[in-house]
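This entry is listed below:
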Amino acid sequence: MTLLFVVLIGRIYWVQVVKGDFWYDKAKSRWAAEEKLIAKRGSITDRDGNMLAMDSIAYNVAVNPNMIHTLNIADEVAEGLHKLLDKPEADLLKIVTAQKDGKFYQQREIHEEGWKIDKELADKVIAFRDELKKKYDAKDVGIYLFEDQKRYYPRNSMASQLLGYVTKEGQAATGIESFFNDKLKGEDGELKYEKDGKRVQLAEGQVEYKPAKDGQDIALTIDMDIQNYVEKALEDINAKYHPKSITAVAADPNTMEVLAMANYPTFNPNTYWDSNFENAYNHSIKSLYEPGSTFKIVTLAAAVQEGIFNPNATYHSGSIAVPGAPVKDINKVGWGTITYLEGLKRSSNVAFVKLGWEQLGGEKLMDYINRFGFGHKTGIELGGEAAGAINVNLSIPSDIARASFGQGKVQVTALQQVAAVAAVANGGKLMEPHIVKQVYDPNTKTTVKTEPKVIRDNVISKESSKKVGEYLEQVVSDQEIGTGRNAYIEGYRVAGKTGTAQKVINGKYSTDKFVVSFIGYAPVENPKIVLYIVVDEPNDSLAGGGAVAAPAFKDIVYKSLKHMGVAPNIIGTENEKKEVTVTVPKLASLTVSQAKTQLKSRSLNVEVVGGGTKVVQQVPASGASVHPAQKVYLITEQRDKLKIPDMTGISLRDALEIASVLDIRVTVKGEGYVASQKQVTKNGERLLELTLSPQTGSAGTDDSKTDSDSDSTVSKDDQKVETTNTQ
């Protein structure tokens, strides 16, 4: 007995004293519990608070191979989940029958297809599980869903290259998501406490609590409506010309806040794995282009500032001898002896070689190129921005000559072009572009706003800025010889310049592959928007920037100015002023091509609704007075076959008439003109939600203003609207 107690006491001493710390840590790990508190990732919105990226609830699918084996339903589970998750059935069968050392697993997750799925798909998985439970009269069939979080982009592909995306593993990839990841991701917290054997927290136990710090919310400078106008226009260009890519950047020239940034083709960040990775590439800041004739704006601004440009002076167009290789105009033989202003309108290369190489000289030209910010990053809050390349050798005349019209050793980004032309538009201030309007920290309740930043003042003088704007306006307003005439918007003063640049293929300029573009701003007297559109390799080698990009520019800028509430200019005397309008002709029974010809002769935009060859109905009706830039809709099929067209910028009366033709119910919010539209389905019925915006002085039909209650619902069977004359 004595020996027994000696051994027992010795053992107690060994456990309690010698190994006391070891066993205490073991015990503590048994009664201690730890929970990770996940921080909420910050949201991303547009300038008006419209949500572009946010965290949302997601679900992970898992299976219990042991339970599935017990019920002998492996094949049925694999087949059913295959139909729902679109994961190969063979891979699923391996998961639902997974074993280790001859024993079936208790739980296996289904990656990637069953990982972070949305609620709609989760509900289908639950329904499938419930069917199996009912079929086999079982409480558990080995299919589970666990709640999780995922990044959600409610606008799908809108601004996708700008926003970037977050992977299922939580890694931020490209765009705003990546550049501001440290601000957006927040900081996870943790909770440590002591528990009893039933895993209930001990009332007197120790507690360690570190709260999660949610990520900061970022409001971008982009305007969702303008972004939508741009993306729709790029889709139209793609449908007609099928280029390799299209890029567009719109900005406020006074602050260089980016109002829209878009690329095509695009992708949906919600399903990034289904897209080509190249579609996530932001050409606006990363791709370098020989700008072509849009770069002539820099040479023109420099020549005006230096007092060299005389619009009435003449020169002989066609060709100019430059050591190394002559420079020719687009038509090679030229237009004879013409003025420099006509040379600008016709986009004569010879005119700008004479201005840049002969009169300004290489050093002065390069000085202005640098002053306008080329060859340097703009400083926008995005990763991967290219600095461009200005490798002009001042000892080589052909380098200088070709740089004067945007060819040769000049490579720029789209954003650099926008910033430079904004400096021309705003009176000579080179501004730093910004994509972030403000950042809100929910932890400190503080907001940091981005203020406009001047990089270089007086790049050119205000007087020179005004003159350059007037010259560029004539490129657009001259409907006979102006290369930018397709960008003309009746009632608004538009300045702009076309561009067509040959692509370099295997070290040589291609004869059939081009980059075409258009850049401009409006209104000239008080610029509100500068827009650049670049189209890489349209399928028509004969179509230049004036044919491909200028019409899209016109559509975007017109809608944007109406959205901003910028009224068109009015004509007439002080006592009798009226808006510029055009009367819509009668188009019913005409072929689509005939109707288009009539509308084009009146400078009216057209949108064909349906796939028919003859016009069944038109909106607005014949005889209506509309602004020249407003669309006329040609209905070519019966209502049950029609898709809802883009109705941005038209009056409520016209929108209701189109809705009546389409046999669709409409809800209206606000007053004035259609600012945005959204199609929804309720109880199996199509419903169109229209948001209106009042625009005093904006042109539309004579009865474009309607008296309507905010948030009213207009029945498809009862669409009588009281109207007043806007004139």
Notes: The longest strand covers residues 508-522. Residues 581-724 form a domain with the Trypsin Inhibitor V; Chain A fold (CATH 3.30.10.20). The two ends are 116 Å apart (CA to CA). Residues 119-136 form the longest helix (18 residues).
